[in-house]
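Sharing a chain and its predicted structure for anyone who wants a worked example. Both blocks are below, sequence first, tokens second.
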Amino acid sequence: MGSFSLMHWVIVLLVVMLLFGGGRISGLMGDVAKGIKSFKKGMADDDDVATPAKPATRLEGHRVPEQDATTATEEKTKA
């Protein structure tokens, strides 16, 4: 009652081939392969999106908000 013998698997394979035909199984396997390729491509795209971008550099003439208060205080003391 444990495992099937080789003859059992051959009979099961023959019944499946009779029910579905060789062309349908071939087409089904091609669709599965396309799905796997699409999945791998999607996973690779997710890895690209997940990597953090470089931090923006400070442009000349623009102040960072934390530095505005300090700079304003320094300007008042200089004047």
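Comments welcome. The chain has a mean pLDDT of 75.
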